[in-house]
Design a protein that fits this description.
single chain; elongated; alpha/beta
């Protein structure tokens, strides 16, 4: 007679620990089910990060909800943090600071018109800034114009110099993309590009108010700098091993994904395109977190 010693051994162990064989196999099933569940979650994470490679865990948790519901899976934010930490998938923010602003020039500088202003509608305030991207043998400079209400990037230009023409091209794109015809205030730092006659004249021609930072405090243009950081950090654009034209195509694709897919916790988790169509105060859903995952605590 042939004996199944593996089953016999399991039965002995179960009796030894006061458990039934059914309880043993039930525990195995739960463990296997948990592994399958984790694999589904990680597959969905990878799918989202194909488009948003460095999106933070809180926004990732929000984006995963609908896809995981189709698998009848519900997860909490802390569980997702722990799972990504275990698999080394948490995003760690780079700390860097570079100067692209020259405010020591003779051209006229304007006052800060948006200090303490409540932004309550799209195209009420546009914020502008320039950031740099390291290429193989040169630098590229990205000029962005962002709507302060919706966080939508409405104008951009990528050039290999810091001349005012790049900012002007971004502004011309923003004007073409304008959807409303109410008064706008344009806010920037005091860089020579934004104070140039061509740039100022284009703003005046379109009846746009001019506002600038006053004290060299980066927080006076924090939103514009934050959007710069999102584009570079979450879309892996701090540096590029591609040529200039290929990098420009990558930037265009990244801005399209940013506007159409990435939710903003400061805009009630709407995408910039969705928020730009709203006409009421948007609920801010971000908080200041002081937890073990503080490297992902900044929310926009």
């Amino acid at each position: 007679m042939k004996h199944d010693y593996s089953r016999l051994g399991i039965g002995v162990l179960c009796r030894l620990f006061g458990k039934t064989r059914h309880a043993y196999y039930d525990a195995l099933w739960r463990k296997e089910n948990s592994l399958v569940r984790e694999d589904i979650i990680l597959q969905q994470v990878i799918a989202v990060r194909n488009d948003l490679p460095r999106i933070g865990t809180r926004k990732l948790h929000y984006l995963l909800q609908s896809s995981l519901e189709s698998h009848k899976i519900k997860i909490g934010r802390d569980y997702l943090f722990d799972l990504l930490s275990e698999h080394k998938l948490l995003v760690r923010q780079r700390k860097r600071k570079a100067v692209t602003t020259n405010s020591r020039h003779w051209m006229r500088k304007y006052s800060n018109l948006i200090r303490d202003m409540s932004v309550i509608r799209p195209e009420q305030v546009w914020v502008s800034d320039i950031t740099y991207i390291r290429l193989i043998n040169q630098w590229g400079y990205l000029s962005l114009i962002t709507d302060a209400y919706s966080r939508k990037i409405i104008g951009y230009c990528f050039r290999n110099d810091l001349m005012a023409e790049g900012c002007i091209e971004a502004l011309e794109m923003a004007l073409k993309n304008r959807m409303y015809h109410e008064p706008i205030i344009h806010h920037s730092d005091r860089g020579s590009q934004y104070c140039s006659h061509q740039y100022v004249n284009l703003l005046h021609k379109n009846a746009i108010g001019i506002s600038m930072t006053e004290n060299g405090d980066p927080y006076e243009n924090a939103l514009a700098e934050r959007v710069n950081g999102i584009i570079k950090t979450e879309f892996n654009l701090h540096g590029s091993q591609l040529g200039f034209e290929q990098t420009y195509n990558q930037i265009k694709k990244s801005i399209k994904v940013y506007n159409e897919i990435r939710p903003h916790s400061s805009c009630d988790y709407l995408t910039p395109n969705q928020a730009h169509l709203q006409s009421e105060n948007l609920k801010k859903r971000w908080k200041n977190y002081n937890k073990k995952f503080s490297h992902e605590k900044t929310a926009v």
